[in-house]
From TrEMBL:
Residues 1-19 form the signal peptide. TPR repeats lie at residues 288-321. SMART domains: TPR. InterPro entries: CellSynth/LPSAsmb/PSIAsmb, TPR-like_helical_dom_sf, TPR_rpt. It holds the Pfam family TPR_11. It comes from Dokdonia genika. This is Tetratricopeptide repeat protein. The keyword Repeat applies. Keywords: Repeat, Signal, TPR repeat. PROSITE patterns: TPR, TPR_REGION. It comes from the Bacteria.
Length: 415
């Protein structure tokens, strides 16, 4: 009786092993025929037998499972994730070499798909795929950096900040060695894709003076991104702390100082704001963009006189600064609403009529001041439809038929 029981158990084990190998062979056959959909559908049945497989069968099954979900030109993130996880499970086994190759293919598929998403403005999807690419890569943090950049574009600020913070903690700079040489005939320096390509042309004496340089660090950009995110989310203390750390390395960096001044302005700390601005102007007194930005800041505070001063200074430094002319015109036109309100509030008496006519003259004089600025903007930006329409409206208010007709014809041509 005892012998019969042992025989029955042995028979059951043999049958189970046969079933396992049968399922695995079916997957292998489907992959060889290019039927990846069928191969994926067969994985489930074999997966149920995984715990009972011997090591050799288990490794073979995991490799086939990974290959089934990887497929050819697969862009499905769920499939690629399963493939990557299966390949990773084979690390440290006799199939490690195949697993490494498979993981490289998974990463390439994820990155290629992410690039396509970026090109169609599907930034969130691109970010998720690049994060997954990093998880399956050999600690290539470039994928993290580009994932965070995509999350920034998709306005998923928490996700972007978490990755940027991780990169900073890891000391990531994104710098790589770049290979250069000088063209022997032209004397122009050229950057090569890799050292081998550069060395070949140097050996052929087509190029001379080989050199190596580090690419630009991404650390500054990451700092700027995090400061912007913290500021946008009103985490002003975090933004200021990061700015202080960055300014320890670059105490006279105009961009960092301007960012710090803007945060103080947002916090209504005007003394701190002015202190930094004075320092910035000492460092870079001829920066037209800086004066323009200071004009915008004063404009937003309702300090029209200071705004005009800075806008004019920006134009003095850069006569082609269209936005400064535009903002000066907008400042002048701001008074127009007051004229209209006063004119509409008047009655029908002779005195009111005289006052109306006087206000009408003042209003037109004010509009003419604005028109000078707006015309300059259109001169600098002749295709700006918004400015063209604004000028048309202003000419009509001024009852300048000739200019209105000419602008109407220009707008029709632009359309």
């Amino acid at each position: 009786m005892k012998t019969k029981i042992l025989f029955a158990i042995a028979f059951a084990v043999t049958s189970m092993a046969f079933a396992q190998k049968k399922e695995v062979k079916a997957i292998e056959k489907a992959i060889k025929s290019g039927s990846y959909g069928e191969a994926k559908s067969l994985v489930g049945a074999a997966d149920a037998l995984l715990s009972q497989m011997d090591d050799k069968t288990k490794s073979k099954f995991m490799l086939l499972k990974a290959q089934a979900f990887l497929g050819v030109d697969n862009k499905n993130v769920a499939d690629l994730t399963k493939a990557g996880e299966a390949f990773k499970a084979l690390m440290g086994t006799k199939m490690e070499s195949e697993a490494k190759t498979g993981l490289s293919n998974v990463v390439a598929a994820l990155v290629n798909s992410a690039v396509q998403d970026q090109n169609t403005d599907q930034f969130s999807d691109a970010g998720a795929k690049l994060e997954m690419a990093y998880a399956f890569s050999d600690d290539n943090r470039d994928y993290q950096y580009f994932a965070a950049s995509n999350y920034l574009n998709s306005k998923e600020y928490d996700k972007a900040a978490a990755i940027f913070e991780d990169l900073m903690a890891a000391g990531y700079t994104g710098q790589v060695t770049e290979y250069y040489a000088v063209n022997a005939a032209s004397g122009e320096e050229k950057k090569f894709e890799n050292k081998q390509e550069r060395d070949i042309v140097v050996l052929a004496k087509e190029y001379v003076k080989p050199s190596e340089k580090l690419s630009e660090s991404r650390e500054g950009l990451i700092t700027e991104y995090l400061i912007s995110i913290y500021s946008f989310q009103d985490q002003n203390d975090k933004a200021l702390a990061m700015l202080d750390t960055a300014l320890e390395k670059k105490p006279n960096d105009v961009k960092l100082l301007t960012s710090k001044s803007n945060i103080y302005l947002k916090m209504d700390k005007k003394d701190e704001y002015r202190s930094i601005i004075e320092k910035v102007l000492q460092i870079d007194p001829n920066n037209a963009e800086l004066h323009y930005n200071l004009g915008v800041t004063a404009d937003q505070q309702g300090d029209d006189a200071t705004a005009v001063k800075y806008y004019n200074k920006a134009i003095e430094l850069d006569p082609s600064y269209a936005n400064a002319y535009n903002n000066l015109g907008a400042l002048v036109l701001r008074k127009d609403a007051t004229f209209v309100d006063q004119m509409n509030s008047l009655g029908t008496s002779n005195a009111d009529f005289d006052k109306y006519e006087a206000l009408k003259v003042e209003r037109k004089a004010n509009i003419r001041k604005a028109v000078v600025y707006m015309e300059k903007v259109l001169e600098l930006k002749p295709d700006n439809m918004e400015i063209a329409n604004n000028l048309l409206n202003l000419y009509q208010v001024l009852e300048d038929t000739n200019k209105a007709d000419a602008m109407k014809a220009k707008i029709d041509a632009m359309n």
